[in-house]
């Protein structure tokens, strides 16, 4: 089990209720894959460095968790098909 951090950006057109539901869905995906020690920080809406899907801002969320690295491919597969997510990145913590 290793520690990971994931930053994801939610489409700014998603309303506040939808954002909370989307964050909960990502957390549920992680826990179903065996993630533990889940900690989520909502950074709020910020300007993007470059346009994504013709949007110039997005709602940033940072999540840290512990998971077996072999389960990450399943998590990433599910995140790729999740509506409302513009981008995400998963990095290993030291």
Characterise this structure.
By secondary structure, this protein is an alpha+beta fold. The chain has one domain (2-92): Alpha-Beta Plaits (2-Layer Sandwich), CATH 3.30.70. The chain has two helices and four strands; from the N terminus they run βαββαβ. It has helices at 16-32, 72-80; strands at residues 2-10, 36-52, 55-67, 85-92. The protein has a four-stranded antiparallel sheet, with helices on one face. The longest helix is centred in the first third of the chain and has 17 residues, at 16-32. The chain is globular, with a radius of gyration of 13 Å. The protein starts with a strand and ends with a strand. The mean pLDDT is 94. One of its GO terms (cellular component) is cytoplasm.
């Amino acid at each position: 089990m290793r520690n990971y951090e994931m930053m994801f950006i939610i489409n700014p057109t998603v309303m506040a209720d939808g954002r909370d539901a989307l964050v909960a869905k990502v957390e549920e995906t992680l826990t179903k894959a065996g993630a533990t020690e889940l900690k989520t920080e909502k950074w709020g809406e910020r300007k993007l460095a470059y346009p994504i899907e013709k949007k110039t801002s997005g709602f940033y969320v940072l999540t840290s968790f512990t998971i077996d690295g072999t389960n990450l491919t399943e998590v990433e597969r599910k995140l790729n098909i999740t509506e409302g997510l513009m981008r995400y990145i998963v990095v290993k913590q030291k």
